[in-house]
Specification:
Length: about 140
């Protein structure tokens, strides 16, 4: 995959960078505090203002994702970039947990990153591994 930055506008790059930063920061805080997190959505406006929509316990995990993506589609005219963030199980070089961020920009760029993590219980902190980046699925624009 060519670098998405080669074709993305400066606005799209900034919006997606802001989105990934906000998503990972909140996910790390939740993992450090609670040991994990429920899926949540993040939006970023063209001005770089991020907002978060958290979810509550729902027995049907696929329903949570449907609700989050439906809500993001409803906001597509007001925001520049959106993401759904999930705590996932992985099997990658000794890592077993990961933060998955599925993001999309209104220019049509869709990306997915997975950041492996380990929780350090005594320090209530999180160690992140090397991020994996891949092309994502367009769901909003």
């Amino acid at each position: 995959m060519d670098s998405w930055r080669d074709t993305a506008s400066e606005e799209a790059q900034e919006a997606l960078d802001d989105l990934f930063e906000a998503a990972l920061e909140l996910a790390e805080m939740q993992v450090a505090k609670q040991g994990g997190f429920n899926p949540f959505a993040v939006t970023v406006t063209a001005e770089g203002v991020a907002s978060v929509e958290m979810t509550y316990e729902e027995p049907d995990i696929s329903r949570i994702f449907d609700v989050l993506w439906d809500g993001l589609r409803a906001q597509r005219d007001e925001v520049a970039a959106v993401a759904v963030v999930a705590d996932v199980r992985i099997d990658e070089d000794g890592w077993t947990d990961g933060i998955r961020v599925e993001a999309e920009h209104r220019e049509g760029i869709a990306l997915e990153i997975v950041a492996p993590y380990r929780r350090r219980r005594l320090r209530r902190s999180v160690e992140l591994g090397e991020f994996g980046l891949s092309e994502g699925q367009r769901r909003v624009w």
